[in-house]
Amino acid sequence: MIRLINVTKHYPGRHHVLREVNLHLRKGEMALLTGPSGAGKSTLLKMLLRLEGVSNGTLMVNGVDLSTLKRRHIPAYRRRIGVVFQDHKLLMDRDLFSNVALTLQVAGLPDRQVQSRVRAALDKVGLGDRLREYPATLSGGEQQRVGIARAIVHTPEILLADEPTGNLDPRLSNEILDLFRDFHHHGTTVLIATHDQGQIDRLGLPVLRLEGGRLHAPEDHQ
Amino acid sequence: MNLHIRIEAGRNALSALGRQPISTAMTVLALAIVIALPVGLFTVLTNMENLLGNWRNQAQISLFLHKDASPQAIQHLQKALAQTKGVVEVRYVSADAALAEFQKHSGMVAAIQTLGENPLPASFVVQLDPLRYPPSALQQLIGHWAQDPAVATAQSDLHWVARLQAILALGQRAALILAVLLALGAVLVMGNTIRLHIAQRRDEIDVASLVGATRSFIRRPFLYQGLLQGAVAGLVAWGIVVAAFYWLQVPVDRLAALYGTQFNLVALTPEQGATLVIASALLGWLGSLLAVGRHLDHTFA
């Protein structure tokens, strides 16, 4: 599903962020991407979203070589991926329904389908009865749930999360990560970037550790 | 393309404009004034052209006769004039008739009476077919008749019309240059306004891009905004021109009355108005397209 072969990323005039990274995450797997701040976790996720290009090497996602993906094909590629951010990236002037519906609207789904699928997604994260509320009225954990609903409403093949529990207390963090596990059990490939050691120990998932631009992963994930 | 996506984009554009009514109104008004200026100027020139139209289509020559021209010479000239090809009408105005007409229109009866005798000569007013006699041929004909022994002076009454026509042509060219410059100004005004809207909605654009929105999906509401504002500005510009002409009609009536005539200003025909609205909408759309295009080039780089 996700395959990196000798992937290197560097910015002009700066050090290498990633050095010859090899990774193989199979369909339906869930793994944690960890490492200290600045290790390159976010850069790797951005490359998987095709927000950043690859300097060297091959990055394949579901058979698509991202290094050769044409600009006009990027939107269609992104519609197959769900992404959750630490800062939620919710639109504060829109209600929960509109925030989640955006993912389906960009895909051109008709209104009726948008209605039912947004309701179902918000139900799944426990906010089905608060469709018309605005993000500002929600707690941090609830806002992150809306972010998750937006990421899964189109049933993506891959779910990426960049420090999704970074601003949450341990109880809310557990709730959020349990949601990810739930999606994983339904067949979604999940990759979560985190540096929360407590969660890493609790979840018992494969750990991909980035350090100094190099990836240390279990043998069967290289 | 799904219609509901376009409808949603239109709704989005309307709500974005409605959220900032004062800013929207100011942009529309600025655009309308920029558009009304060249359109108003064009319309003034068109009205002047119409005013000249009647005279321009007439080719008329006045032949003023020597005071001592014999009746035979006058008769001979009248006959020759009548037999010239393209002459529509020959009218003889005697010295007395000329004086009577002058007194009637000038009101200078007392001044003329002090002269003792009639200072005005007799004349022939020759009406020609304008299709047969363009201005250059007319000039030749004047030269020919001026050599007749009975004729003291021959002149075309249309010289000033030709001069005014040349001035109008110059005015039209100047108005065209002004229109091009102001159209560019309108595009820049709209582009700048849309740039502000983009800056306000940067988060929305970024999120939409992350969840797979295409360039056209992101661009569409902004284009509709430009199109709508441009169209409304065109309507307002139309209104401004009509109001200005309505306001000018009273002094024009007064001026026309002094010349013993009447003249109705024509603002814009419905077809011209519709063209103005469409052109203005397209200018708004173009300004938006340029502004959004630049932003998206950066977003999708």
From TrEMBL, chain A:
Regarding the membrane, this protein is recorded as: Peripheral membrane protein
Q: Keywords, A to Z?
A: ATP-binding, Cell cycle, Cell division, Cell membrane, Membrane, Nucleotide-binding
Compartments where located: Cell inner membrane; Cell membrane
Domain ABC transporter, which positions? 2-222
Q: Does the keyword Amino-acid biosynthesis apply?
A: no
Q: Name one GO biological process term.
A: cell division
Tell me the InterPro entries matching this sequence: AAA+_ATPase (IPR003593), ABC_transporter-like_ATP-bd (IPR003439), ABC_transporter-like_CS (IPR017871), ABC_transpr_LolD-like (IPR015854), Cell_div_FtsE (IPR005286), P-loop_NTPase (IPR027417)
Q: Which GO terms describe its molecular function?
A: ATP binding; ATP hydrolysis activity; transmembrane transporter activity
GO CC, sorted alphabetically, is: plasma membrane
Q: How does it assemble?
A: Homodimer. Forms a membrane-associated complex with FtsX.
According to its UniProt entry, the function of this protein is described as: Part of the ABC transporter FtsEX involved in cellular division. Important for assembly or stability of the septal ring.
Name the protein family.
Belongs to the ABC transporter superfamily.
Designated name of the protein? Cell division ATP-binding protein FtsE
What species is given as this protein's source? Acidithiobacillus sulfuriphilus
Automatic annotation (TrEMBL), chain B:
Instruction: Please give the start and end residues of each transmembrane region.
Output: 21-45, 174-194, 222-248, 273-292
Q: What is the purpose of this protein? A: Part of the ABC transporter FtsEX involved in cellular division.
Q: Which InterPro entries match?
A: ABC3_permease_C, FtsX, FtsX_ECD, FtsX_proteobact-type
* FtsX extracellular domain location: 60-131
Member of which family?
Answer: Belongs to the ABC-4 integral membrane protein family. FtsX subfamily.
- Superkingdom field: Bacteria
Q: What is this protein called?
A: Cell division protein FtsX
Pfam families membership: FtsX, FtsX_ECD
The membrane topology noted for this protein in its Swiss-Prot or TrEMBL record is: Multi-pass membrane protein
Assembly state and interactors? Forms a membrane-associated complex with FtsE.
List locations, semicolon-separated: Cell inner membrane
Q: Which PANTHER family match?
A: CELL DIVISION PROTEIN FTSX
- Kindly list the organism's lineage: Bacteria, Pseudomonadati, Pseudomonadota, Acidithiobacillia, Acidithiobacillales
Query: Where does the ABC3 transporter permease C-terminal domain start and stop, copy by copy?
Result: 177-291
The UniProt entry's GO biological process terms, in alphabetical order, are: cell division
- State where it is primarily located: membrane
Listed under GO cellular component are: cell division site; plasma membrane
Q: Which keywords are on file for this protein?
A: Cell cycle, Cell division, Cell inner membrane, Cell membrane, Membrane, Transmembrane, Transmembrane helix
